[in-house]
Amino acid sequence: MDILYLSSMLSGTEQKKLFSKYGSISSYASQRFNHLLTKGLLECGCNISALTYEIAPKDFFDENKVYNETEDGIDYEYIPYGSRNSIIRYATKRIIKWQKEHKDGFIVCDIILGELSIAVNLASMFHKINSVAIVTDVPLARAMDRRKGIKKIPVILKQKMIYNFKNYIFLTEQMNAMLNRKNRPYVVVEGVADGIAENLIYKKSEKKICMMAGLLEDEFGVGFLIDSFKKADVENAELIFYGKGTSVEYIEEENKKDERIKYAGQLTNAEIIEKEKTATLLINPRPPVGQWTAYSFPSKNIEYISSGTPLVAFKLAGIPDEYDEYFYKIPSNESDEFAKTLKELLNKPDKELIEFGARAQKWVLENKNPKIQAEKILKIFNI
C-alpha cells in the first residue's frame, strides 16, 4: 500500500540539524507519534512518502536547505518556506499529483497543521482523494488556547476541515463522537510505544528521582507537583524537570529555596529516554480539569510506561480502562493528598517499583507497539 504522509515529521538528520542550531525542535510529541506510526506502517509493508511542513525559522531554509532526502525507508519532501497561502498551494498540487500517480494510495494527514488539512480539502474538490485524518487534538478544545473573536477564526476553520475527511485516526473515543459527523470509518490509536531496552535495576540513580519532562506549564501541573513534592519531604529525593515552557522561571526560583528541585534544561529524545530509565518515578501531573481532557491521551504516558520506570499520573477521561493497572494514580487535585501518595511510593522497596515498571513496560510494548497499532489502522480501513 502506498501512503503520502502529510505532517511536520522530520528525518532524524533534520531533527539533529534543528536541535544543533536552535536547541529544540517543534512539537517533540508530534515528531515521536508520527515517527512511530510510520515505523509500524513500514513494518506492515506500506510504502511511505512524506510531504513535510517544517516548522523552522526562515534562516534555516536559507542555509543550503536540502528539500528531498530518504531515511529509514521514507522518502521526505520538505515544503519550501513561504506564506501560508503558498504552502497550501504547494501542498494541494503535490497531493493531486501524487493521488493521480497512486490511484489506490491513501493520503494520511496530521490535521494539527491547518495548512495541510486545507490542502487536502482543496485537492478533494478537483480529484478523488483517499483521505485519512490523524486527529491528536480537537482544535476548539485545546489546552491553553484562549483565542477569541477574529483570532479564533483559523481554529474554527481547522475544525471544519476535519469533518470532510473520509477516514479517521483518533486518540480517544470521545473525539469520534464530536468530529466524525458523517459516521465514516475510524480507529482509536491513543499512542504508540517505542521498543526501547529493558529498564534494569543497576541503571537506577542512588537518589530517589522524581522526573517530569516536556511542556512545563502551570496548567499542566508544574506548581501542583512542586507543592506536593515539598510536602512529601522524602529523604534523599529530588524533583527534576526537563523541557521548556513558561514555568521554567518558577522552577528556577523554587530551586533557590529548595535545592532538591531542579531544572535541567532541554535534551534530545534519546537523552531524555536515558534519564527516564534512571529515575525512580516519572510524573505527569496534567490535571483532569477542562473539556479538553476527554479528547486527550498524553503521549508522555506511553513514553514513560515504555521506559520501564513507573508512571504516576491522573486518570484522565480519555485514558482507556485497560491502562489502569499499569500506572500509579494521583488521587486528587489536593497537594496534601498527592504528597501522601508520593511519600508512600518513594518509600516502597526499589524491587517493588522496578517490578511494577517492568510489568507495565512488557504490557505496553506487547500491545501498543508500532506494528500492532499500524495493523489496527490497516484492518479498519481495509487497506
Q: Which terms would index this structure?
A:
single chain, 383 residues, alpha/beta, Rossmann fold, 2 domains, eight-stranded mixed β-sheet, 14 helices, 42% helix, globular
Word description of this protein:
This protein folds into two domains: 2-192 and 370-380, 3-Layer(aba) Sandwich (Rossmann fold), CATH 3.40.50.2000; 201-367, Glycogen Phosphorylase B (Rossmann fold). Helix 4 packs across helix 5 and helix 11 (299-307) packs across helix 13. Strands 3-4-2-1-5-6-7-8 form an eight-stranded mixed β-sheet, sandwiched between helices. With 383 residues, it is an alpha/beta fold. It contains 14 helices and 14 strands. It is globular and about 65 Å long. Helices cover 42% and strands 17% of the residues.
Helices and strands in order, then pairings?
Layout lengths: L1 E6 L4 H11 L5 H16 L3 E6 L5 H5 L5 E4 L2 E5 L5 H18 L4 E5 L3 H13 L4 E5 L17 H10 L4 E4 L2 H7 L6 E3 L19 E8 L6 H11 L4 E8 L3 H10 L3 E3 L5 H10 L2 E4 L14 H9 L3 E3 L14 E2 L5 H12 L3 H18 L2 H11 L3
Parallel strand pairs: 1-2, 1-5, 2-4, 5-6, 6-7, 7-8, 9-10, 9-12, 10-11, 12-13, 13-14
Antiparallel strand pairs: 3-4
Helix pairs in contact: 2-14, 4-5, 5-6, 8-12, 11-13
